[in-house]
Amino acid sequence: MITTPSYAYNQVITFGIKVFNQEGIQLLVILKMTDYIPSGYQLADANWTLSGSQAKRIRLHRFITR
């Protein structure tokens, strides 16, 4: 969770998702992400699509090793 406490009703709360490459090579991948929105919460990000209680996003991403 990125938003620091304390929390209030109707407040926008930001969650973070970290994806990283452990292989040591450069990759170009399609990320298909699904997150579950708990009862009482609302999705507030236009980059995601809501279907029932599931938020979904598809993104092309390049992983570059360091």
Question: What's this model, at a glance?
Answer:
The protein has 66 residues and is mainly β. The chain is 0% helix and 35% strand. It has a domain of 37 residues.
Describe the structure.
The protein is mostly beta strands. The chain has a domain at 27-63. It has strands at residues 27-36, 49-51, 54-63. Strands 1-3-2 form a three-stranded antiparallel sheet, with no helix packed on it. The two termini are 26 Å apart.
Index terms:
66 residues
| Percent helix | under 10%
Radius of gyration: 15 Å
The largest sheet has its strands arranged as 1-3-2
Tell me the total number of β-strands: 3
Number of helices: 0
Poorly predicted spans: none
Order of helices and strands: EEE
Strand content: 25-35%
Shape: extended
Describe the largest sheet: 3 strands, antiparallel
Mean pLDDT: 83
Straight-line distance between termini: 26 Å
**What would you call the structural class?**
mainly beta
